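pasting for the record
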Amino acid sequence: MPPRRRARYDEDAAPYRRRASSGVPAGEDGPYDESAGDEDERGAEPRRRRAALNAVSAGRLGLRYIADLTSKETEGVTSVEPVENGWLVDVEVVEDRRIPSTSDMLSIYECQVDDEGNLTSYRRTRTYRRGSGAYGGGL
């Protein structure tokens, strides 16, 4: 059997290109980037314009914003709702871990994301115990 040839780092670099923080390979347009038109009168490159967000993207952004702002562990997105000029996203956050885990304190944070993906506001709307159910009662 012939010896295996070791791959070199410079061979087939295309599938292993460095990716930007958005997950898009560096040098490529992201999912919300589209050209805004021709070059301006100064000869600079055309400006990029973001397309409107969809519900999935708005939910992901809301989750990331709440995690960054609160520095707490997020459980997930509980709702995404379109509003005028953007999206309203509710995110469930673990406020306090307890033993047993059914006693954990959770909160719902509501954040508003505009059509370009910028956070415009956020607030905590509700705090409850994990095992308490939707309206404060037990199972």
